[in-house]
Amino acid sequence: MSTVRRADAPALTALLHDLAGLLTDTVDSGASVGFLASFDHAEATAWWRERVAAVAAGRLFVWVAEEDGRVTGTVSIALPDKPNSRHRAELVKLMVSPTVRGKGVGRVLLTTAERAAAGLGITLLHLDTETDSPAERLYRGAGWTPAGVIPDFAENPAGVLRPATVYFKRLGAVPAGG
Q1: pLDDT (tens digit, 0 to 9) for every residue of the chain, 178 residues total?
Q2: Nearest CA-CA partner of 65 in 77, 56, 73
Q3: Cβ-proximal residues to 72 (8 Å cutoff; 6+ apart), any chain
Q4: Distance CA 102, CA 81 (A)
Q5: For residue 95, what are the contacts with CB-CB under 8 A and spacing of at least 6?
Q6: CB contact burial 54-85 (16+ within 10 A = b; e otherwise)
Q7: Fold (CATH) for 3-170
Q8: How far does Cα 3 stand from its chain's mean position?
Q9: Which residues, including other chains, have CB under 8 Å from residue 162's CB and lie 6 or more apart?
Q10: Are 150 and 128 in contact (CB under 8 A)?
């Protein structure tokens, strides 16, 4: 089973190559995580490198799952930059290596991120995911609530416009007025 740890900026930097491989494998397997099929390892490395500053600034939290020294998954929480939204965050880029899908890695990453968010005082998480995707089944099974479907939200890796379902999950006490 994979172990999950939070990656600070130096750890993220040290894992750039492996995280880029996970990202390209995820896109190559058809998962819609924001990139098209022509996405390569160099572009994936550059994308992850851009995340390091946000992690160092405390605006992004990243967890990495590893098994036998190999990165098997990741998930992040992006904090908003507006004063009126300090109670919420966005769950982003939950990715699981195609070689370990169906073995509970996604569920462990999701639970880890939810617990950490609650520990940060976040009471509401939200996300969007491709409608009818395996990821959507994971979120529903973990108690996330669908808020609605947006048609033609984003292109999948093959370049086809697909709808996305927006989800939310309450983590704790609802803030005043909520």
Answers
A1: 779 999 999 999 999 999 999 999 999 998 888 898 888 999 999 999 999 999 999 999 999 999 999 999 999 999 999 989 999 999 999 999 999 999 999 999 999 999 999 999 999 999 999 999 999 999 999 999 999 999 999 999 999 999 999 999 999 755 555 5
A2: 73
A3: 2, 22, 65, 66, 96, 97, 99, 100, 105
A4: 35
A5: 22, 23, 26, 31, 33, 73, 74, 75
A6: bbeeeebbbbbbbbeeebbbbbbbbbeeeeee
A7: Aminopeptidase (3.40.630)
A8: 17
A9: 32, 130, 131, 152, 153, 154, 155, 156
A10: yes
